[in-house]
Amino acid sequence: MEINEFSHIAIVKFDDEKTSIEKIVDALEKAGFPLGGPPKFLN
Fold it and tell me: Long-range contacts for 31-37 (Cβ within 8 Å, ≥24 apart)?
């Protein structure tokens, strides 16, 4: 996971067999990084 504290952008690479986007969003929010909109998926 790469988090830029100045731009508030987090880039997360994950294995969808081991976790889910919902769990990642919850963890980011608990760490003080609330989402400012829906997640964007990159190829």
Answer: 33/3, 33/8, 36/8
